[in-house]
Amino acid sequence: MKVLQVIDSLRMGGAETLVARLHAGFRERGIECEYYLLSSQNSELEKGLLAQGARVHAPLKASVYSPRHIFALSGQLRTCKYDVVHVHLFPAQLWAAIAAKLTNTTASLITTEHSTANRRRNRFCFAMDRFMYAPYQRIACISDAARTNLVQWLAEASDKLVEVPNGIDVDEFAAAAALDKKTAFSIPDENLPVVISVGRLEDVKNHEILMRAISAIPNVHLAIVGTGPLEGRLRQLADTLGIAARVQFLGRRLDVSRLLKTADIYVQPSRWEGFGIAALEAMASGLPVVVSNVPGLAEVVADAGLRFPPGDHEQLVTCLKMLLENVELRQRLSRAARERAKQFSVAKTRDCYEGLYREVVGQAIGRRASA
Q: What is the CATH number for 52?
């Protein structure tokens, strides 16, 4: 089976990481994936796929929002015959839907809904979304929350929706070796508690509330892994709050599994999340986790971590103090997190997608035979 994975880019992010992670598992099952990127970032994920011998297409040097992608992607669909075109993220979803119509491709079209919310869910964009989702035979939702929210937005798509939870290589994070704590986090004492958070430095991740919480708790170090447009503003906030010496911006890292093993507590304060791969990785590492009580994260973490109302930094302070002051609670949540993470393996995700691919391809063959 031949599958074209279409995505905005392969920068470091939850959807992008999942797409890259699935490659080897698909190949084991006889599914050959090629990758079409609206933008090549020359990222580590992209390099990793190329190293595995994957074909990666990124023909345009243009904004991901340029309609020129319609014609470039149409050319790709005409030149190469695929059994399935699997699309991730907007605007790739829109350009692929239009390209499929223009080429009248025989490939089955599916997309994955990677979030519970987006800025298009308003009355001005409804017609566009209705048009965009129409050509997709199946819409895979990464969580029940993502599925529920999409049904609320576009009820007519409900019969196309299937739930395919994200997954990680649980063993990779469970078995990772810790780093030297003082060196890794530039702290003077290895007994200093370190709170870590992983995510793009964007508004949706809400690092600001975490920094405000840290400012209310003395003798705690905060390590933030990720890059993004808000880095300058967040550094300025650290200065304003008087915690610049206790906040470390680690940027993009390739040793996240080892950093998680070295830290003491993980926090994900997002305004919304479709799933929460970073939190799941922390759970697999055995870290006690604290997350905002938004649908995607709440579904993943369940009772294996602490949750606080999104945007409520005082409740986040309360959660952090509970963990810092209670060793037994930290140990209990660490064990619970490890067990919970085992339910979300990347092998299970692969199996779900394989079943979905074979289903839509079988249906397409049946339609052609009866035509």
A: 3.40.50.2000
